[in-house]
UniProtKB/TrEMBL annotation:
Uppermost EC category: oxidoreductase
Protein topology in the membrane: Multi-pass membrane protein
Cofactor: FAD
Name of protein: Squalene monooxygenase
Gene from which the chain derives: NDAI0D01990
Species of the source: Naumovozyma dairenensis (strain ATCC 10597 / BCRC 20456 / CBS 421 / NBRC 0211 / NRRL Y-12639) (Saccharomyces dairenensis)
Pfam families: SE (PF08491)
Function (record text): Catalyzes the stereospecific oxidation of squalene to (S)-2,3-epoxysqualene, and is considered to be a rate-limiting enzyme in steroid biosynthesis.
Length: 492
């Protein structure tokens, strides 16, 4: 039985904003705009707590965006698990990479009207401690059960008096004769198909978005690989409070991170969008042997139970929001490989920038809003391109399927082992704290030249001609992996 207050939205008025989807991004857009005095309708097909294996580890850049929006307390009282950095394990050897010092990054911005009454600071609870998040010297990320986090975001939104929540399936984006967007048609249980009007319609319908194509029929993602996931219970992770990336020359990347005091997520990459016919056998033959010793008891138990979940890994570079009355945002606009755990961070920072640009404007002035949205596309590039390109480059290296990529994978690990700036900058990119694509390019090619140097060292004087040839091949491979994505992100 649906809560009656979720289906009685008024369709006789024109809302300032209509938000399609209450996943991670929709509630943040709705809350932010409501706090700016806008009248907002948010439509979600199912307000019940979702059960998904996506969006479970938030990088510090995402945590900071939640602070800017005055929504950081969404990580409270859900048994969220602090994340203090990453551990990369390569053929059994490991490197610890802690998140950056707060002193090395810009202070968090507080958005006017959004941040008030301490809502940019965490509360004390069983697992999240004020001392660590507010007074600790390093940036922190956080991991959680996705559905619990979403419930918190949605509850914050529900408290805003300018927000009306509606449960229903958006089936059409409405347009006028000039092809400008004027709202959405919603299929509501017990009410049927109802038209709702708004000055600005925000499409936040996520990874499987139906409405991203309103920007262009060509705005479709590519899917190159998948993740197969399991829940591990009472797992002993190699380094507590770290995300783990397990790499090796004989297997695909494996991600492991604790999402609550009891539960740990494992995601195993499979290099095709089509899953293996028999996942259990594939896991037993291609993953099990590479799981660190401390995780084996919980892994073996989960494998025996065989409760697998899977998700496609999609890539979609952003497109300019060039349709009057429409703003596509979140995964509907832009996706990257989930290996870097950057999706929520990009989306939340997009919301921060969006509010800065249009939060104080009158939404009925649709042409002025459109101008700002056109400009917004370019302003967000420095931030999202780093996270997107990094995720693709890392996946290509970590899922190496030829010798040059395998050399780069090893070179990358050896580069991290050098410590100092060789981990400081990469982790700043990963954490969403260094929006500088040119610096990313410099660091990527530093890894490439270090890999080539290792080749020369390994081959010795007599092997010089071989090393030279291999070096050229490595460089060409690296250019092929990196540059098309970088250019696509920066120029597109
Ligand atoms: C395997 C995997 C793992 C990931 N892990 C991480 C991670 O660890 N960290 C991270 O930061 N990111 C991660 N991501 C990415 C992250 O999940 C997304 O970036 C994030 O969820 C995007 O939020 P969103 O609001 O755009 O979309 P979503 O969170 O997908 O929300 C979309 C919402 O729209 C609703 N909806 C859809 N269509 C309609 C309709 N027609 N009418 C009404 N409602 C509708 C849906 O019900 C849903 O609630 C991962 C992605 C994948 C694939």
């Amino acid at each position: 039985m649906v809560d009656p207050t979720l289906i009685d939205a008024d369709n006789s008025i024109t809302y300032d904003a209509l938000v399609v989807g209450a996943g991670v991004i929709g509630p943040c857009v709705a809350t932010a705009l409501a706090r700016k005095g806008k009248k907002v309708l948010i439509v979600e097909r199912d307000w019940a707590m979702p059960d998904r294996i996506v969006g479970e580890l938030m990088q510090p850049g995402g945590v900071r965006a939640l602070r800017s929006l005055g929504m950081i307390q969404s990580i409270n009282n859900i048994d969220a698990y602090p994340v203090t950095g990453y551990t990369v394990i390569f053929n059994g050897e490991k490197v610890d990479i802690p998140y950056p010092y707060k002193a090395d990054v810009k202070p968090v911005e507080k958005l006017p009207d959004l941040v008030k009454d301490g809502n940019d600071k965490v509360l004390e609870d069983k697992t999240i401690h004020i001392k660590d998040y507010e007074e600790g010297e390093r940036e922190r990320g956080v991991a959680f059960v996705h559905g619990r986090f979403l419930n918190n975001l949605r509850n914050i939104t529900a408290q805003e008096k300018n927000v009306t929540r509606l449960q229903g399936d958006v089936i059409e984006i409405l347009k006028n004769e000039a092809k400008e967007v004027i709202g959405a048609k919603v299929n509501i249980d017990g009410r049927g198909k109802v038209d709702f009007k708004a000055h600005l319609t925000f499409v936040c319908d996520g990874i499987f978005s139906h409405f991203r194509r309103e920007l262009s029929p060509e705005h479709v993602p590519t899917v190159g690989s998948s993740f197969v996931g399991m829940s591990l219970f009472d797992a002993k992770t190699p380094v507590p409070m770290h995300g783990h990336v397990i790499l090796g020359t004989k297997h695909m990347p494996i991600l492991v991170y604790q999402i609550s005091p009891e539960e740990t997520r494992i995601l195993c990459a499979y290099n095709s969008p089509k899953l293996p016919g028999d996942i259990k056998t594939w896991m037993a033959n291609n993953v099990q042997a590479y799981i660190p010793e401390s995780l084996r008891p919980s892994f073996d138990k989960a494998l025996a139970q065989g409760k697998f979940r899977s998700m496609p890994n999609s890539y979609l570079s952003a497109r300019q929001n060039n349709v009057t009355g429409l703003c596509v945002i979140g995964d509907a606009l832009n996706m990257r490989h989930p290996l870097g755990g950057g999706g929520m961070t990009v989306g939340l920072n997009d919301v921060v920038l969006l509010v800065e640009k249009i939060g104080d404007m009158d939404f009925s002035q649709r042409e002025k809003i459109l101008d700002e949205l056109l400009d917004y596309h370019f302003q967000r590039k420095s931030y999202d391109s780093v996270i997107n390109v990094l995720s693709i480059a890392l996946y290509s290296l970590f899922a190496a399927d030829n010798n040059n990529l395998r050399d780069l994978q090893r070179g990358c690990f050896k580069y991290f082992q050098r410590g100092g700036d060789c981990v400081k900058l990469p982790v700043e990119f990963l954490a969403g704290l260094m929006p500088n694509p040119f610096l990313l390019t410099r660091v990527f090619f530093a890894v490439v030249f270090y890999t080539i140097y290792l080749k020369f060292e390994e081959r010795g004087f007599l092997g010089l001609p071989f090393a030279l040839l291999e070096g050229i091949m490595i460089l060409l491979t690296a250019i092929k992996v990196f540059t098309p994505y970088l250019l696509g992100e920066l120029i597109g």
